[in-house]
Design a protein that fits this description.
This protein is mainly α and about 110 residues long. It has one domain. It is built from five helices and no strands. It has helices at about 1-5, 20-35, 40-60, 65-95, 100-110. The protein is elongated. The model has no long low-confidence stretch (mean pLDDT about 80).
Length: about 110
């Protein structure tokens, strides 16, 4: 059904899982980037990736192949940005909160995300 609905061939069939696959490949590099560059630069990078992914989806609004590939590329950029959603809350808690409030701050932050 996927191949018929999206007019896709067998090469593009695994594309729905592209965000998860990119997440796995970017997990170690972006976590190291967060550790080396700090929270501010990582947040700017991740916000740029999300904005770029959203902008790609806006470029083509019809049901053409252009939208199909731009939407997948935007999902790849959002998958890359998703790494920081899991690794940033402990860094935020360690940076902004005193030691006796860090567990609570991290748990609230993880529940919100």
């Amino acid at each position: 059904m996927y191949l018929q609905y999206y007019m896709a061939n067998n090469i593009s069939f695994p594309l729905p899982s592209r965000g998860c696959i990119v997440f796995l490949f970017c997990l170690v590099p972006l976590s190291n980037y967060l550790e080396r560059q700090g929270l501010r630069r990582t947040t700017i990078l991740v916000a740029s990736l999300v904005a770029g992914g959203s902008f790609l989806r806006l470029l083509s609004r019809d049901d053409s192949w252009g939208f199909f590939w731009l939407a997948h590329l935007g999902a790849v950029l959002n998958g890359m940005a998703g790494v920081t959603l899991g690794s940033a809350p402990p860094v935020v808690s360690a940076t902004w909160f005193p030691e006796n409030e860090r567990i609570f701050a991290t748990s609230v932050n993880m529940v919100i995300i």
